[in-house]
Amino acid sequence: MRRPHKREFMDIKKGKGLKFHYLQKMKSWKGRFSMIGNRGIALLMILWVLILLDIIVLQFASSMRTEAEITRNFKDRMEAYYLARAAVEIARYELTYVASASSNVPVANTQGMVDFRAGSEERDMNPQWKREIALGRGKCRIDYHVKEDKYDLNYLAIRNHNDLEEVLVACGMEPETAELSMVKQSIIDWVDPDHELGGPDIGAEDDWYEDNWEGYECKDDRFYSVEELAFIRGLRPEKGDSEEEMEEKKRLLSELKKLVTAHPFLTDSRINNNMASRGVRGVTSSDEELDSQDEELNQGNPIDPGQRPNHYQVIATGWVEGSPAKRQIKAEFQIRGRRKVQILAWTDNYIQAEEWDPNQESAWGESNESETI
Question: Among 126, 147, 230, 313, which residue is least crowded by beta carbons within 10 Å?
Answer without folding.
Answer: 126
